């Protein structure tokens, strides 16, 4: 399956996906053929170039509305013959129209055990709540943010004296395992998003 990864930053998840899909030992059903970023000059773009993957910057600041930005994204994905989209630290909220076009074909990774601690400040919320376990979640993207069907989760203990930075770092280590696992499940068609929004294991 031809995969595009959408990023906004450092791209550690992108790197994990590249390493997994390029490793012949994994015999992956996924091939990353395009990396799109809404921000120029981010480290993730450099990672893609190092791996010989096409990159494109679609700067959201050049678009008046979310609809126009999403239309440009969609056009690039179609032009690239993309079949699966992975959001990996992509920090733009996508419109309902765009999400519905990629229903069942678009994944996201979130740094908490969903449905707890949705949104852009998961680690902060985790520390405020005082929970002793957090983790990461890979899920299908639905219109409601961080709410689609869950595919893979990995737990991470929360230690006393933990900071957002220390937590983010340890959650990222499990993200590196969770995202490739989820992508592989979708690319090899072992999972499917059903009409009722629930996951089907095949
Ligand atoms: C990850 O923690 C991911 O869960 C969140 O944003 C971060 C992206 O990190 N959505 P990176 O760009 O993959 O390093």
TrEMBL record:
Gene Ontology biological-process entries: 'de novo' IMP biosynthetic process; adenine biosynthetic process
Keywords: ATP-binding, Ligase, Manganese, Metal-binding, Multifunctional enzyme, Nucleotide-binding, Purine biosynthesis, Transferase
Cellular component terms per the entry's GO annotation: cytosol
Segments passing through the bilayer: none
Signal sequence bounds: none
An MF annotation (GO) of this entry: phosphoribosylglycinamide formyltransferase activity
Keyword hit for Protein transport: no
Family: In the central section; belongs to the AIR synthase family.
Entry protein name: Trifunctional purine biosynthetic protein adenosine-3
Taxonomy of the source species: Eukaryota, Metazoa, Spiralia, Lophotrochozoa, Mollusca
Entire-sequence positions represented here: 804 to 1005 of 1005
């Amino acid at each position: 399956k031809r995969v595009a990864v959408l990023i906004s930053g450092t791209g550690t998840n992108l790197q994990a996906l590249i390493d997994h899909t390029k490793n012949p030992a994994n015999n992956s059903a996924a091939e990353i053929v395009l990396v799109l970023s809404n921000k120029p000059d981010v480290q993730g773009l450099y990672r893609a170039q190092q791996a010989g993957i096409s990159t494109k910057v679609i700067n959201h600041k050049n678009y008046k509305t979310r609809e126009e930005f999403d239309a440009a994204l969609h056009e690039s994905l179609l032009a690239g013959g993309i079949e699966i989209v992975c959001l990996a630290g992509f920090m733009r909220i996508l419109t309902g129209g765009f999400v519905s076009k990629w229903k069942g074909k678009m994944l996201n990774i979130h740094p908490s055990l969903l449905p707890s601690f949705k949104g852009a400040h998961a680690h902060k919320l985790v520390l405020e709540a005082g929970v002793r376990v957090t983790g990461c979640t890979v899920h299908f993207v639905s219109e409601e943010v961080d709410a689609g069907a869950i595919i893979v989760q990995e737990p991470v203990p929360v230690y006393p004296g933990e900071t957002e930075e220390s937590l983010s770092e340890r959650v990222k280590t499990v993200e590196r395992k969770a995202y490739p696992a989820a992508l592989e499940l979708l690319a090899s068609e072992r999972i499917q998003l059903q009409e009722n929004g629930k996951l089907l294991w095949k």
